[in-house]
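FAQ: What does a ligand-bound record look like?

Like this one, built around adenosine-5'-triphosphate:
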Amino acid sequence: MTEGCLELNYDIPANDFLHAGEASSSVKKMLNQLGVDPDKVKKTAISMYEAEINAVIHADGGAAHIEIWKDKVVIKICDKGPGIPNVELAMQEGYTTAPDHVRDMGFGAGMGLPNMKRYADSLDIDTAVGKGTTVTITVFLK
Amino acid sequence: MKVLEFAEKFGMKVWAGENKLQNDITGVYVCDLLSWVMSHASKGDAWITVHTNLNIAAVALLTEVACVIVPENINVEPETITRAENEGIVILGTDLNSYEICCRAYECGVGK
Ligand SMILES: Nc1ncnc2c1ncn2[C@@H]1O[C@H](COP(=O)(O)OP(=O)(O)OP(=O)(O)O)[C@@H](O)[C@H]1O
Ligand SMILES: [Mg+2]
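The answer part, i.e. the structure of the complex:
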């Protein structure tokens, strides 16, 4: 890889909590194969998993677009869900609107967005109520 | 301590990951909130959870825990076993409860 990047795209199926996380698992494998530092792989995979699960739980699914550059990984998770009315509130640890059937599966700690913030080197949330949300996670590899 | 030794010592059932039993257990972590586990579990932990859905395999893979331990004879779903096998994740089962598993691990010197 001299210039340019490796691009990967995945569909994130709606309401499929059970298979959610498969995109992040394959990205993790890919980064490992490329010889990326294990700590960076973990940061990337965890942030991506949280964003992917959020798209499934809160937004009827969406799409993941991943760019692997020489010096960074950029992950965009887009959905056409309800949007986040108050991002500052949503970012707080413990804040959740997850319904009971989702909590029964172990989600709903209100820790997904805080985890993304913690593990990503940069986190951008572009959201509009009634339109959808795009979460962009960047992890620098150098 | 190797997962194999631990599992054999306490007569645990191997639900998945028969070929990964050489993983080292270096600590124990107990929690059923997946995002919480994601942020606090450490690589090499034996993760104890009552959840048995597919997501435990994903969380175990991402956190790089040594194994998942399902307490109190809870049944593990076949899809979870398949996914764990595919991802190289060890799932153990036991009749012990979470507290008892922790005590046994402590007695074996795990995390000391
Ligand atoms: N893609 C999204 N679309 C709409 N709302 C969202 C989206 N992502 C997050 N939210 C809102 O932000 C809240 C907090 O998200 P966060 O990921 O931190 O916690 P959670 O998903 O509720 O629980 P956890 O991630 O711990 O399982 C959610 O409960 C939801 O209200
Ligand atoms: Mg979440």
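Follow-up question: can I read anything off the structure? Yes, for example: Residues 6-140 of chain A form a domain with the Heat Shock Protein 90 fold (CATH 3.30.565.10).
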